[in-house]
Amino acid sequence: MVGRIVVARHGRPNLSRDMLISSREYRHWWAQYDLAGVHPDEVPPEALIEIACESDMVVSSTLPRARETAAIVTGGERDVPAEELFVEAPLPPPPLPWLKLRPGVWGVVSRTFWFCGYAPPGVENHMGAWRRAGTAVDRLTGYAADGDILLCAHGYFNWMMDRVLRGRGWRRTHNGGNHYWAWRSYEWPAKKPAPVNPRLAEAAE
Prior knowledge:
This protein is α/β, with parallel strands linked by helices.
Protein backbone atom coordinates (compact mmCIF):
# COMPACT_ATOMS: atom_id res chain seq x y z
CA MET A 1 0.00 0.00 0.00
CA VAL A 2 1.32 3.44 -0.95
CA GLY A 3 1.97 5.71 2.03
CA ARG A 4 0.89 9.28 2.63
CA ILE A 5 3.04 12.23 1.54
CA VAL A 6 3.10 15.32 3.77
CA VAL A 7 5.00 18.41 2.60
CA ALA A 8 5.55 21.10 5.27
CA ARG A 9 7.03 24.57 5.21
CA HIS A 10 9.76 25.48 7.70
CA GLY A 11 9.23 27.62 10.80
CA ARG A 12 9.86 31.38 10.85
CA PRO A 13 13.57 32.11 10.26
CA ASN A 14 15.64 34.12 12.71
CA LEU A 15 16.16 37.17 10.48
CA SER A 16 14.59 40.63 10.59
CA ARG A 17 12.48 41.98 7.72
CA ASP A 18 12.04 45.43 9.24
CA MET A 19 14.20 47.50 6.87
CA LEU A 20 14.30 49.23 3.50
CA ILE A 21 16.98 47.87 1.18
CA SER A 22 18.13 48.06 -2.43
CA SER A 23 18.11 45.12 -4.85
CA ARG A 24 21.82 44.58 -4.25
CA GLU A 25 21.26 44.61 -0.49
CA TYR A 26 18.34 42.20 -0.91
CA ARG A 27 20.65 39.75 -2.67
CA HIS A 28 22.84 39.81 0.45
CA TRP A 29 19.77 39.61 2.71
CA TRP A 30 18.50 36.55 0.86
CA ALA A 31 21.91 34.87 1.23
CA GLN A 32 21.68 35.50 4.99
CA TYR A 33 18.12 34.12 4.96
CA ASP A 34 19.44 30.88 3.48
CA LEU A 35 21.98 30.66 6.31
CA ALA A 36 19.47 31.44 9.07
CA GLY A 37 17.89 28.84 11.29
CA VAL A 38 14.46 28.90 12.89
CA HIS A 39 13.71 31.75 15.31
CA PRO A 40 14.17 30.54 18.92
CA ASP A 41 10.66 31.67 19.89
CA GLU A 42 9.00 29.46 17.27
CA VAL A 43 6.74 26.61 18.45
CA PRO A 44 5.45 24.06 15.92
CA PRO A 45 1.80 22.98 15.81
CA GLU A 46 1.09 19.85 17.82
CA ALA A 47 -0.56 18.33 14.75
CA LEU A 48 2.69 18.59 12.78
CA ILE A 49 4.63 16.97 15.62
CA GLU A 50 2.10 14.14 15.57
CA ILE A 51 2.52 13.75 11.81
CA ALA A 52 6.29 13.52 12.28
CA CYS A 53 5.87 10.86 14.97
CA GLU A 54 3.56 8.81 12.74
CA SER A 55 5.68 9.09 9.59
CA ASP A 56 7.86 6.20 8.56
CA MET A 57 10.43 8.65 7.21
CA VAL A 58 11.19 12.35 7.69
CA VAL A 59 13.39 14.21 5.20
CA SER A 60 14.32 17.87 4.72
CA SER A 61 16.04 20.25 2.34
CA THR A 62 19.67 21.05 3.10
CA LEU A 63 18.99 24.67 4.14
CA PRO A 64 19.29 25.34 7.89
CA ARG A 65 15.71 26.54 8.41
CA ALA A 66 14.36 23.32 6.94
CA ARG A 67 16.81 21.08 8.78
CA GLU A 68 16.05 22.78 12.10
CA THR A 69 12.31 22.49 11.43
CA ALA A 70 12.68 18.75 10.94
CA ALA A 71 14.76 18.47 14.11
CA ILE A 72 12.16 20.42 16.10
CA VAL A 73 9.13 18.41 14.98
CA THR A 74 10.95 15.11 15.56
CA GLY A 75 12.39 16.22 18.90
CA GLY A 76 15.85 15.48 17.49
CA GLU A 77 15.22 11.81 18.18
CA ARG A 78 15.53 10.35 14.70
CA ASP A 79 17.80 10.53 11.70
CA VAL A 80 16.57 13.04 9.10
CA PRO A 81 18.28 12.91 5.70
CA ALA A 82 18.77 16.33 4.08
CA GLU A 83 18.65 16.61 0.28
CA GLU A 84 19.53 19.60 -1.90
CA LEU A 85 16.84 18.48 -4.35
CA PHE A 86 14.20 20.04 -2.06
CA VAL A 87 15.74 23.52 -1.54
CA GLU A 88 13.69 26.64 -2.30
CA ALA A 89 13.34 27.98 -5.84
CA PRO A 90 15.69 30.93 -6.45
CA LEU A 91 14.73 34.55 -5.75
CA PRO A 92 17.17 36.65 -7.81
CA PRO A 93 16.36 40.37 -7.38
CA PRO A 94 16.00 42.23 -10.70
CA PRO A 95 18.43 45.09 -11.44
CA LEU A 96 16.34 48.00 -10.15
CA PRO A 97 18.98 50.04 -8.26
CA TRP A 98 16.78 53.08 -7.71
CA LEU A 99 14.25 51.16 -5.58
CA LYS A 100 14.38 50.59 -1.83
CA LEU A 101 11.84 48.08 -0.53
CA ARG A 102 11.24 45.85 2.45
CA PRO A 103 12.55 42.27 2.06
CA GLY A 104 9.03 40.84 1.85
CA VAL A 105 8.15 43.18 -1.02
CA TRP A 106 11.44 42.40 -2.77
CA GLY A 107 10.47 38.74 -2.51
CA VAL A 108 7.24 39.36 -4.43
CA VAL A 109 8.99 41.53 -7.03
CA SER A 110 11.82 39.03 -7.48
CA ARG A 111 9.48 36.06 -7.75
CA THR A 112 7.41 37.89 -10.40
CA PHE A 113 10.46 38.74 -12.52
CA TRP A 114 11.81 35.19 -12.11
CA PHE A 115 8.42 33.73 -13.05
CA CYS A 116 8.49 35.83 -16.23
CA GLY A 117 11.92 34.50 -17.20
CA TYR A 118 14.52 36.63 -15.38
CA ALA A 119 17.46 34.57 -14.11
CA PRO A 120 21.09 35.76 -14.03
CA PRO A 121 23.79 33.40 -15.33
CA GLY A 122 24.26 30.43 -13.03
CA VAL A 123 20.83 30.80 -11.37
CA GLU A 124 18.16 28.14 -11.87
CA ASN A 125 15.39 29.53 -14.07
CA HIS A 126 11.66 28.95 -13.80
CA MET A 127 11.52 26.01 -16.20
CA GLY A 128 14.53 24.44 -14.52
CA ALA A 129 12.77 24.64 -11.16
CA TRP A 130 9.69 22.93 -12.63
CA ARG A 131 11.90 20.11 -13.89
CA ARG A 132 13.44 19.82 -10.43
CA ALA A 133 9.95 19.77 -8.87
CA GLY A 134 9.14 16.78 -11.07
CA THR A 135 12.30 15.01 -9.96
CA ALA A 136 11.51 15.86 -6.32
CA VAL A 137 8.06 14.31 -6.66
CA ASP A 138 9.66 11.21 -8.17
CA ARG A 139 11.83 10.99 -5.06
CA LEU A 140 8.91 11.47 -2.66
CA THR A 141 6.81 8.92 -4.53
CA GLY A 142 9.63 6.41 -4.22
CA TYR A 143 9.85 7.02 -0.48
CA ALA A 144 6.06 6.69 -0.13
CA ALA A 145 6.25 3.18 -1.57
CA ASP A 146 7.64 2.14 1.84
CA GLY A 147 5.25 4.12 4.04
CA ASP A 148 4.27 7.62 5.17
CA ILE A 149 6.77 10.39 4.40
CA LEU A 150 7.11 13.92 5.83
CA LEU A 151 9.19 16.50 3.96
CA CYS A 152 10.24 19.76 5.67
CA ALA A 153 11.04 22.25 2.94
CA HIS A 154 10.00 25.66 1.56
CA GLY A 155 6.99 27.71 0.56
CA TYR A 156 7.19 28.29 -3.19
CA PHE A 157 8.90 25.03 -4.10
CA ASN A 158 6.34 23.16 -1.97
CA TRP A 159 3.63 24.86 -4.04
CA MET A 160 5.36 23.71 -7.24
CA MET A 161 5.47 20.14 -5.98
CA ASP A 162 1.79 20.43 -5.07
CA ARG A 163 0.97 21.16 -8.70
CA VAL A 164 3.04 18.19 -9.86
CA LEU A 165 1.62 15.78 -7.29
CA ARG A 166 -1.98 16.64 -8.10
CA GLY A 167 -1.22 16.56 -11.82
CA ARG A 168 0.01 12.99 -11.43
CA GLY A 169 -3.13 11.86 -9.65
CA TRP A 170 -2.32 12.31 -5.97
CA ARG A 171 -5.32 13.44 -3.94
CA ARG A 172 -4.69 16.41 -1.65
CA THR A 173 -6.38 15.73 1.69
CA HIS A 174 -5.17 18.83 3.57
CA ASN A 175 -4.10 22.24 2.30
CA GLY A 176 -2.52 24.45 4.93
CA GLY A 177 -1.19 26.97 2.40
CA ASN A 178 2.27 28.55 2.41
CA HIS A 179 2.48 29.95 5.95
CA TYR A 180 5.31 28.99 8.31
CA TRP A 181 4.74 25.48 9.75
CA ALA A 182 1.89 24.89 7.28
CA TRP A 183 1.61 21.61 5.42
CA ARG A 184 -0.22 19.80 2.66
CA SER A 185 -1.09 16.10 2.75
CA TYR A 186 -1.53 13.74 -0.20
CA GLU A 187 -2.85 10.22 -0.61
CA TRP A 188 -2.82 7.95 -3.59
CA PRO A 189 -6.51 7.44 -4.50
CA ALA A 190 -7.85 3.95 -3.80
CA LYS A 191 -9.51 2.28 -6.75
CA LYS A 192 -13.26 2.53 -6.56
CA PRO A 193 -15.12 -0.80 -6.48
CA ALA A 194 -16.80 -1.74 -9.72
CA PRO A 195 -20.51 -0.79 -9.81
CA VAL A 196 -22.86 -3.65 -9.03
CA ASN A 197 -25.50 -4.57 -11.59
CA PRO A 198 -28.79 -4.77 -9.63
CA ARG A 199 -30.13 -7.60 -11.79
CA LEU A 200 -27.04 -9.72 -11.24
CA ALA A 201 -27.21 -9.03 -7.51
CA GLU A 202 -30.83 -10.21 -7.41
CA ALA A 203 -29.94 -13.33 -9.35
CA ALA A 204 -27.17 -14.14 -6.90
CA GLU A 205 -29.65 -13.99 -4.04
